[in-house]
Protein: M20/M25/M40 family metallo-hydrolase
Amino acid sequence: MRSIAAVLLLAVPVTAAAQSHPQAEAQALALSQETIALRSVQGEGNRTADVAQAFRKALLAGGWVDKDIEIVPVDDTAYLIATWPGSDPSLKPVLLSAHMDVVEAKPEDWERDPFTPVVENGYLYGRGASDTKFEASLAVASLIELRRQGFKPKRTIVIAYSGDEETTMKTSRMITDRFKDAELVINIDGASGTFSEETGKPLYWSWQGAEKTYIDFQLEVTNPGGHSSTPRPENAIAQLSEALARIGAYRFAPEVNDITRAYFEKASALQPEPELAAAMRAFAKDPNDAAALAILRNDPSMAGRIATTCVPTMVQGGHAPNALPQRATAVVNCRVFPGHSNPEIQAELERVAATPAVKFSDITGDTSTASPASPLKPEFISVFEKGARKAWGDVPIIPMQSSGASDSMWFRAVGVPSYGASASMSKDSDDFSHGLNERISLQNLGPGVTYYLSVMTDLASK
Structure:
């Protein structure tokens, strides 16, 4: 069996950055492989606690003491808290946030077994490679390297890894409750940068300072039903269909905040399609520019960046082919621009549906919450940008607002700034998070360690 170092030499282009911290890079790959092999999926046989134990073992060997590492069982999962105490207890801690659980993966659907990590052609394959066991391992290995170098943090550093981010986010909320006094959170969930499809070189790096709110609404129509040979004016399926058609065609008012405006301004310079680039610049100047809106709304990658979106995703109705439907239901999923409440969005959808027979219910539960954008504090942003440029060179840096959901929303909701700012980059064509044949480029190893050494040194020294 080849050594980890030999695998790295074969898998990764040799660069100055890749040679800088070989021990940390080898440990990051080894930890990634060890944790990918542990099936940390919600339900029977969930091994998230074993993932936490793998990190605990590495941290203890790296200089942490037992009392500073907690693995807290919660239902069938667990979360990890590992503290590196700072010299000044009056300073609020900085948190490094990730998650240890992954979504389900069926081996029969994959080219390779999803829970058998494979290094091939410069990539690490396996469930969790990009979301987000590689990045969590890279951060742990980097902090161990920082401690090995003799660094003494002034501000306490806390590794806070949740155990159910992909499902209920119960542990995410529990971690937030414990660290409402944090100075800031660095959420390293997923790749922050993008490689060029043509050259494989860094195209740009981004940090995420806001995210849209996830909401599910159930729409329901109930009728007495009856025999299909004697139709009535009120038909549950027809009534629901009319409401869904109106919702599907509806476009929420365009919006910008500081983060999305900066995104459109900076990303337009990298957009190869002149018409789309011009629309992005025009939208940043005037969100109500009709011509720009028409172009952006027609592009699936842009439509979610300019406004709240609500789309029908599930529908069910009727109970027999020869009977009038007694009940018809649908789910409308919304991704809501920061600043709007669930009741506000529900009321707008009810107006759009214009069908009194349709009953709306918010069925999101406690798996999501509205959260404001994190502040654009230069003292934080400059740290991330410095680290990214140390790692990847003078790449364009673009702020982002996510249309998905992450642990950051819980911190932002209680007033703790949280920023999605991981070390890694990926080609768009390599994005298989939650999908088949998930992978991450091992080109990230050397620059990744460089990034975390820079960022954590700066944040823990202030």
Notes: The longest strand covers residues 202-211. The radius of gyration is 24 Å. Residues 1-19 have pLDDT under 50 and may be disordered.
